[in-house]
Amino acid sequence: MIVYKDILGKLLEAGYTTYRVRKEKLLPESTMQKLRSGGTVTTETIDTLCRLLHCQPGDLMEYVEDE
């Protein structure tokens, strides 16, 4: 199972408030909601997040084996 790290916190640290993300249309509101609730997002979203945060996908998520 893929588990996302604190992506919203990372965005905030980088200066991307939810208001700014919406205003500049960086990510759709539905994607923001998925990030809040731990839902799955597309690789396109991961690509956008990596570009905004100057990071690698492993900085945003990790694989945790099901028990």
Structure description:
- The protein is mainly alpha-helical.
- The chain has one domain: Orthogonal Bundle (434 Repressor (Amino-terminal Domain)).
- 49% of the residues lie in helices and 9% in strands.
- The chain contains four helices and two strands, in the order E-H-H-H-H-E.
- It has a two-stranded antiparallel ribbon with strand order 1-2.
- The longest helix is centred in the last third of the chain and has 11 residues.
- The mean pLDDT is 94.
Write the layout of secondary structure elements.
Blueprint: E1 2-4, H1 7-13, H2 18-23, H3 29-37, H4 43-53, E2 61-63
Antiparallel strand pairs: 1-2
Order of SSEs:
EHHHHE
How far apart, in Å, are the first and last alpha carbons?
10 Å
Which strand order do you get reading across the main beta sheet?
Answer: 1-2
| Strand segment tally | 2
State the CATH topology: 434 Repressor (Amino-terminal Domain)
The largest β sheet comes out as: 2 strands, antiparallel
User: Per the principal axes of the C-alpha atoms, what is the gross shape?
Assistant: globular
Number of helices in the DSSP assignment: 4
Overall pLDDT metric: 94
| Quaternary | single chain
Structural class: mainly alpha
Q: Tell me the number of structural domains.
A: 1
Q: How does CATH name the architecture?
A: Orthogonal Bundle
The proportion of strand residues reads 5-15%
Radius of gyration: 12 Å
- Catalogue the unreliable spans: none
Portion of residues within helices: 40-55%
CATH class: Mainly Alpha
